[in-house]
Specification:
Structural class: mainly alpha
CATH superfamily of the largest domain: Ankyrin repeat-containing domain
Shape: elongated
Radius of gyration: 47 Å
Helix content: 40-55%
Strand content: under 5%
Strand order of the largest sheet: 1-2
Length: 724
C-alpha cells in the first residue's frame, strides 16, 4: 500500500502509524470476533486522528456523517469497502471530487467509525480506556452520540448517554442538536430517549434560531408536539424569520397541526418580527384555518407593525372571496380601519382591481369617499387604474364624483392629466363638474390641463370637456386661460377648438401676455398664422413692455418676424430697458433677422442693458450697451461689418479706445478690433451720410418713397440696402 504521496497536516500520523490506523478502521467496520483483542494491542494509537482530503463540493467531506440525501447502506460490503478506500488513500474517490472546488481536509478518529457502524463493544472499550465520548469531527463537529442518532444506533446511544455523552451538542453548520436530527430523520425511539433525559435542553436553537418544536411543526411531526411541550418547549418561540410555530403551521396549511398547537397553549395573537400575527398569514390559505383561529380568540382587527395592514386588507389580494366574506360577516370587524398609508380595505380593493368585493365592502359600511395619505379617494385610484368598469361600479355604489383630494383635484382632473378620454366620458356622464377648480397656491381647471399636451388622446379629452360645458374663460392664478396655454405650447388643433367655442383671441394674462405674444415667445409660426387674421393687437406689450416682435427676434424666428411686420407690427418698438427687436437679434447672433430689420429702416444705435428672456427681473448688463458692443463681446464679425456698411454711426463707440472696457471676445481677435477702431476713427463718407439722411427722412416708408425718386436704380438700391 503506497501512502507516500499523501499530504498531511501537522499532527497527522506518520506513514507506519497511518497504516496501522487503517487496519484498525477495517477491523471496526468488519467487526471480527477478536476486534477488541486487536484494538488492545494498539491501545497507544487509538486516539490519533487520520486525515482524508476532499473537495468542498464533495459530500464525502462529511465522511461517516450521514445527512438527508447521503443515504449509504451501512450493512453492505460496498459501503465498507468504500470507507476503507477513503482511509487507505487519504483521498476521496468520488466522481464529484474534481479540480473545480477548494480542497478541504477532514479528520476522524476510531470512535467516529465505531459510532457510524454501531459497534457497541468498541465504544465500550473506548470508555474503559478513559477516552472522551465528546470527540468532534473537524468538518461538522459531529460527536459519536450525534453519529449514533444519525445512523439510528439505539443501543449505542443509550450506552453513551449512560456514560456521560453530551446530548445537547450542536453541529458546526446547521447548529442542530441530536434531538433535532432525530425528529427530521424520524428516529422516533431516539426522540423519546432524548426527551426522557433530564439533561435535555429542549429550547436550544440552531443557526436559524429554530427550536426542536419549530422543526417538529415544519416537518409536520404532530405526534411529537405534546411530548415537546410537556418537556417545556416554548410554543411561542420566534425564529430568525420572525415566525412562531403557529405561523409555520399556518404556512403548512395543516388544520390538525394548528388545532393541536392552540390546544397546547400557543398564543393565537403572537406577532412575528414584522408585527404580523398568524391570522395575517391565514387569510392567504384555507378558510377553515381562519375560522378556527377566530373562534379561538384571534384579533380580527390586529394590524401589522410596519404596513399596519389588517387581515381584511391582506385578504384583498388573495383572490379568495369566501375568506373576505367570512371576515366581513364578523360583527367585530372594523371595515374602515386604516394602514400606515391611511388606506382602508376598500382603497386596497380598488388598487388591486377586486371589483367583485366592492359591493360586499360598501354593504358592510366601507366609506366609498375615504381619503388616504396621498389625498386620493377610491374613485381617484380607479381613474389611475384606468378601469372604467371599476369606475362605473364605484359610482353606482355611491362614490362622490366630485370629491376632491388634498390638493383640491377631482377624479376628472386626474383623468384629464392622464389623457384618458374613456374615463373622462364616464365621469362627465355621471355628473363630474368640467369647471371644478383645483389648488390653493395654484388654480387649475380640467380645460387648462387639457391644453398641456397635443396628443390625439388629449384632443379627444378637450372635445369632451368643451362639449360638456367647460368654461373657456377660467384662468389660473397667473391669469392664463386655456387658449394662452395652447398658444404657449403650440397646440394649433387645440387652439382652433377653443376659438370655435368662443375663447377670446386677444385676452390678456396678469403679466399682460396675449396668445399671440406667447406663440411668438414659444416660437410657434403655425399658431401665429392662425391668430394674425383675427385682428390681434400686434404691438401689445407685456409687463416688461416686450412685444411679439421682441420674442421673434430673440428666437431667431425670421418667418414670424416677417409676418408680424407685414401685418403692421412696429419694428422699432422698445421695452422697459430700451431693448429693440434689432438689439435682441444681435444678442441672439441672428444675421437674417438683423438684415430684415435693417431693411425696415429701424434705429440701430439704441443702447440697452438687455433682459433675460426667461426671467424679466434679471438684466444682461450692468449698464446700457450698444448693439456694436454686443457684437464686439461675441466677436460677431459678419454682423459688425453688416451694420457698419449699412451706415451704423460709430461715434458713440468710444469704449473701443478704452483698454479697461474692451470685452473679452474682442481681445481674442485683434484684426476685428482694429477694423472697428478704424471705423470709429474714420468719418463717414459723403455717400453714406447722404444715404443716412434719406433713410432718416423717409422713416418706415423708405422703400416706397425711394422708389418714387427720379434717381438711378443703383442709387435707389443703395438707399434701401438691397445688397443685404
Amino acid at each position: 500500500m503506497d501512502t507516500g504521496d499523501i499530504k498531511v497536516d501537522d499532527g497527522d500520523p506518520d506513514a507506519e502509524t497511518r497504516r496501522k490506523l487503517i487496519e484498525l478502521y477495517k477491523v471496526i467496520v468488519n467487526q471480527p470476533d477478536n476486534q477488541l483483542e486487536i484494538l488492545h494491542k494498539h491501545r497507544d494509537i487509538l486516539d490519533i486522528p487520520i486525515t482524508v482530503e476532499c473537495r468542498l463540493r464533495c459530500m464525502c467531506i462529511t465522511l461517516f456523517e450521514m445527512h438527508p440525501g447521503h443515504n449509504y447502506d451501512m450493512e453492505t460490503d460496498r459501503y465498507k469497502l468504500m470507507v476503507c478506500a477513503w482511509m487507505e488513500t487519504g483521498l476521496c474517490r468520488c466522481q464529484s471530487n474534481d479540480q473545480q472546488f477548494e480542497k478541504i481536509k477532514c479528520q476522524k478518529k476510531l470512535i467516529h467509525v465505531a459510532a457510524v457502524v454501531g459497534n457497541v463493544p468498541v465504544v465500550e472499550y473506548w470508555v474503559r480506556c478513559g477516552l472522551s465520548l465528546d470527540e468532534e469531527t473537524t468538518v461538522s463537529c459531529f460527536t459519536p452520540l450525534f453519529l449514533a442518532v444519525v445512523n439510528n444506533g439505539i443501543e449505542l446511544l443509550k450506552y453513551m448517554i449512560q456514560n456521560g455523552a453530551d446530548i445537547n451538542v450542536t453541529s458546526r453548520h446547521e447548529r442542530n442538536t441530536p434531538l433535532m436530527e432525530a425528529m427530521v430523520m424520524r428516529r422516533d425511539e431516539i426522540v423519546h430517549i432524548l426527551l426522557d433525559n433530564p439533561k435535555l435542553e429542549v429550547n436550544t436553537v440552531n443557526f436559524q434560531k429554530e427550536t426542536a418544536l419549530t422543526i417538529a411543526v415544519r416537518v409536520r411531526r404532530r405526534e411529537l408536539l405534546p411530548l415537546l411541550i410537556a418537556r417545556g418547549a416554548d410554543p411561542n418561540h420566534v425564529d430568525c424569520t420572525g415566525f412562531t410555530p403557529l405561523i409555520h403551521a399556518v404556512l403548512e396549511e395543516d388544520d390538525k397541526l394548528l388545532r393541536l398547537l392552540l390546544e397546547l397553549g400557543a398564543d393565537v395573537n403572537k406577532i412575528d418580527n414584522r408585527g404580523e400575527t398568524p391570522l395575517h398569514f391565514a387569510v392567504h390559505n384555507g378558510i377553515e384555518l381562519l375560522k378556527y383561529m377566530i373562534q379561538n380568540g384571534a384579533d380580527i382587527n390586529v394590524t401589522s407593525r410596519y404596513e399596519r395592514n389588517t387581515p381584511l386588507m391582506e385578504a384583498m389580494v388573495t383572490r379568495k372571496k369566501e375568506i373576505v366574506q367570512m371576515l366581513l360577516d364578523n360583527p367585530k370587524l372594523d371595515v374602515n380601519a386604516t394602514n400606515f398609508r391611511k388606506e382602508t380595505a376598500l382603497t386596497i380593493a380598488v388598487r388591486v382591481r377586486r371589483r367583485e368585493l366592492l359591493p360586499l365592502l360598501i354593504a358592510r359600511g366601507a366609506d366609498s369617499n375615504h381619503v388616504d395619505c396621498t389625498g386620493f379617494t377610491p374613485l381617484i385610484h380607479a381613474v389611475l387604474e384606468e378601469d372604467d368598469k371599476l369606475l362605473r361600479l364605484l359610482l353606482e355604489l355611491g362614490a362622490d364624483v366630485n370629491k376632491i383630494d388634498n390638493r383640491g383635484e377631482t377624479p376628472l382632473h386626474f383623468a384629464v392629466h392622464n389623457e384618458l378620454s374613456c374615463i373622462v366620458k364616464v365621469l362627465l356622464e355621471n355628473g363630474a363638474d368640467p369647471n371644478a377648480v383645483a389648488g390653493d397656491s395654484f388654480i387649475l381647471s380640467p380645460l387648462l390641463i387639457a391644453t398641456d399636451s397635443g396628443s390625439d388622446d388629449m384632443l379627444d379629452v378637450l372635445k369632451l370637456l368643451l362639449d360638456n360645458g367647460a368654461d373657456v374663460n377660467i384662468t389660473n392664478e397667473q391669469g392664463y386661460a386655456p387658449i394662452h396655454n395652447a398658444a404657449w405650447n403650440g397646440l394649433l388643433p387645440s387652439l382652433n377648438l377653443l376659438l370655435d367655442h368662443g375663447s377670446p383671441h386677444d385676452g390678456l394674462t396678469f403679466d399682460k401676455n396675449t396668445p399671440l405674444t406667447l406663440a411668438a415667445h414659444g416660437k410657434h409660426p403655425d399658431v401665429i398664422d392662425r391668430l394674425l387674421p383675427l385682428n390681434c393687437d400686434l404691438n401689445n406689450k407685456d409687463k416688461d413692455l416686450d412685444t411679439a416682435l421682441h420674442y421673434a427676434a430673440l428666437n431667431d424666428d425670421c418667418i414670424t418676424l416677417s409676418r408680424l411686420i407685414r401685418h403692421g407690427a412696429d419694428p422699432d418698438v422698445q421695452n422697459r430697458v430700451c431693448t429693440t427687436p434689432l438689439w435682441n437679434a444681435v444678442y441672439a447672433e441672428s444675421v437674417e433677422i438683423v438684415k430684415a430689420l435693417l431693411k425696415q429702416n429701424v434705429t440701430v444705435e439704441v443702447a440697452s442693458v438687455g433682459l433675460n428672456p426667461y426671467d424679466g427681473t434679471k438684466v444682461l448688463y450692468s449698464e446700457p450697451k450698444t448693439p456694436m458692443y454686443v457684437i464686439g463681446e461675441k466677436c460677431l464679425i459678419e454682423l459688425g461689418r453688416m451694420l457698419i456698411e449699412s451706415g451704423y454711426n460709430m461715434a458713440k463707440e468710444s469704449w473701443l479706445l478704452d483698454s479697461k472696457d474692451i470685452p473679452i471676445g474682442l481681445e481674442s481677435n485683434e484684426s476685428f478690433r482694429q477694423y472697428l477702431i478704424e471705423a470709429y476713427s474714420t468719418p463717414q463718407s459723403l455717400l453714406i451720410q447722404s444715404r443716412n439722411f434719406f433713410r432718416k427722412l423717409f422713416g418706415k416708408k423708405v422703400t416706397v418713397k425711394t422708389e418714387a425718386l427720379n434717381i438711378p436704380v443703383p442709387l435707389k438700391n443703395y438707399i434701401t440696402l438691397k445688397h443685404l
